Model the fold of this input.
Amino acid sequence: MLDTYHRRNAVEKITGLSRSLIYEMMARDEFPRPIRIGRRAVAWRESDIVNWQAQLTSNAL
Done:
């Protein structure tokens, strides 16, 4: 299965999190880390974001 990759702006829209909060949560290992897609570019796997959201939902129950 091929994964879709999202740049930071799309991740902000998908999650509703700000740029600074995304990076703060990554530093605390509470948010998935991006992968390098170019020399100066990173992106997040959609599957990582979906799994993170599912984990939030299951922890809320």
Remarks:
- The chain has one domain: 5-60.
- Residues 30 and 52 are 9 Å apart (CA to CA).
- The chain has three helices and three strands.
- The first helix runs from residue 8 to 15.
